[in-house]
Write a structure and sequence with these properties.
The protein is mainly alpha-helical. It has 14 helices and 4 strands. 64% of the residues lie in helices and 3% in strands. The strands form 2 sheets. The protein has a two-stranded antiparallel ribbon with strand order 1-4. A two-stranded antiparallel ribbon has the order 2-3. Helix 2 runs parallel beside helix 5, helix 4 packs parallel to helix 6 and helix 11 crosses helix 12.
C-alpha cells in the first residue's frame, strides 16, 4: 500500500491583518495609478508591472521551498483564487513600494534587484516570536536601504513627484486624504497608533535637539513632516504589522527608537536616514527577539536540571539506613527444624569510612587487618 504524506496546515494571517493588507494593497495601487496619470511619477510606466511580477515570482518560489522544507502545505494552496490573491498582498505592496520610492535612472535591473532582496529577506532574516519563525525586517524599507548602500548613484524618488502637477488647494487635499485613510486603517485594523504617536513625538524632539545642539534650523527640520512622502512613510511603512511590535510599550519604544536613530544618522550627515533608521531599529528588534529566545531555552534547561540536582543532594546528605544480613549465632536449646536465624539490623552512620563502604586504600588496609585479626586460629 503506498505511503500517504501528511502535511501540516499552512500558517494563516489574522483576519484583521488580512483586511489591513488588502486595504494597503488597494491604496498603494490607486496611488500608483494616480501617480502615473496626473501626480508626476518619473519612473517608466512599465516598471510597476515589472516590480509586481518579480515580487510575485520570488514570493511563490520561496514559499514553495519553505513549505517543502517544513513539510507543510504552501500558504497559497487550498484557498482557490481568493487564497492566492490574499497570499500575494504583501508581495504586491513590496513591489510597488520599492519602485515608487526609489529612483535608479534607466537601470531597471537595480530596481528588480531591490525587489528580490526585499521579498527574499522575509525567508532569511527571521526570529522566533510566539512559537513561530517570523521575519523582523521591514521588506520594502530593507530593499530600498540595500539599493542606497550598494549603488551610491541611486537615490530615493524626489518627494515633489507626488504633487508635481497639483496646485492650490490640491497640494493639501492629497496629503489630507492619505492621512485620514492611513489613520483609520492603523486605528481600526493594525492597532499601531501608539507607534505612530511615538514616532511623531520623537521626530519633533530630535528636530528640536538637533537645532539646540547643532544649530540646525528647527522649522526646516520640522517642515519635512508636511510632505506627502513623510505622511506615506508614517502611515504605510513604519507601521508594517508584520515587522513592528503589537504591545503598547513595545510600539512606543519602536517608534521613538526610529525617530532617535534618524536624528543620530542625520546629525552625522548620513543621507536618507529615515530608511536606514528603520532598518537598524528592525535589526535591533530581531536581535532582541533572538536574545529572549536563548534566555528562555537556558531557563528551561535549568528548570529541567534542578529536580535531578536537588534529588542527588538529598540522597547524599540524608542519613542512610540499610539492612545488612549477618549470620546470627544459633540460640541454645533450639529445636531441630526450628526457625532460621534472623538477620541483624545495622544502622549506618552515613560516613563511608566508618561504615566500611569507601574505596580508600588506607581504609581498605585497616579493614583487612581487622578482619585477619578477628579470624580464630
Amino acid at each position: 500500500m503506498p505511503e500517504t504524506k501528511t502535511l501540516t496546515a499552512a500558517p494563516r494571517h489574522d483576519v484583521k491583518v488580512t483586511t489591513a493588507l488588502r486595504r494597503f494593497a488597494i491604496s498603494i495601487s490607486i496611488l500608483n495609478i494616480a501617480g502615473y496619470t496626473f501626480l508626476g511619477f518619473e519612473q517608466p510606466w512599465l516598471w510597476p508591472f515589472i516590480a509586481i511580477f518579480t515580487a510575485y515570482v520570488v514570493e511563490i518560489a520561496l514559499e514553495a521551498v519553505s513549505a517543502r522544507v517544513d513539510k507543510r502545505a504552501p500558504r497559497y494552496a487550498g484557498g482557490g483564487f481568493k487564497g492566492m490573491v490574499e497570499f500575494l498582498f504583501p508581495a504586491h505592496i513590496t513591489g510597488l513600494a520599492v519602485n515608487m520610492l526609489t529612483y535608479v535612472n534607466d537601470r531597471v535591473w537595480v530596481m528588480v534587484f531591490g525587489v528580490v532582496v526585499a521579498v527574499g529577506t522575509k525567508w532569511v532574516l527571521r526570529a522566533p516570536l510566539k512559537g513561530r519563525m517570523r521575519h523582523y525586517m521591514n521588506p520594502s524599507n530593507f530593499g530600498i536601504a540595500v539599493i542606497l548602500l550598494l549603488f551610491p548613484w541611486a537615490s530615493i524618488a524626489p518627494p515633489y513627484h507626488f504633487t508635481e502637477y497639483l496646485y492650490g488647494p490640491a497640494d493639501w487635499v492629497l496629503p489630507a486624504i492619505i492621512l485620514v485613510l492611513g489613520t483609520m486603517l492603523n486605528a481600526k485594523l493594525t492597532g499601531r497608533m501608539w507607534l505612530i504617536m511615538a514616532w511623531l513625538g520623537g521626530f519633533v524632539v530630535q528636530a528640536v535637539v538637533r537645532g539646540l545642539v547643532m544649530g540646525t534650523s528647527i522649522p526646516a527640520a520640522l517642515g519635512m513632516m508636511t510632505g506627502v512622502a513623510f505622511v506615506l512613510f508614517t502611515n504605510y511603512m513604519v507601521t508594517d504589522p508584520g515587522t513592528s511590535p503589537s504591545k503598547r510599550s513595545s510600539q512606543i519604544f519602536f517608534g521613538a527608537g526610529v525617530a532617535a536613530m534618524y536624528g543620530v544618522l542625520t546629525g552625522l550627515g548620513i543621507a536618507y536616514g529615515i530608511f536606514f533608521a528603520t532598518a537598524l531599529v528592525c535589526l535591533i528588534r530581531g536581535g532582541y527577539l533572538w536574545g529572549l529566545h536563548f534566555l528562555a531555552k537556558q531557563r528551561e534547561a535549568q528548570e529541567r536540571q534542578a529536580p535531578a540536582v536537588h534529588g542527588a543532594h538529598d540522597r547524599q546528605d540524608a542519613p542512610v539506613e540499610q539492612l545488612v544480613a549477618a549470620p546470627a549465632a544459633p540460640a541454645t536449646g533450639s529445636v531441630a527444624g526450628g526457625a532460621a536465624p534472623q538477620p541483624a539490623t545495622v544502622v549506618l552512620s552515613g560516613d563511608p569510612c566508618k561504615d566500611g563502604t569507601c574505596f580508600h586504600g588506607k581504609c581498605a588496609a585497616e579493614r583487612a587487618t581487622k578482619n585477619k585479626a578477628a579470624v580464630p586460629v
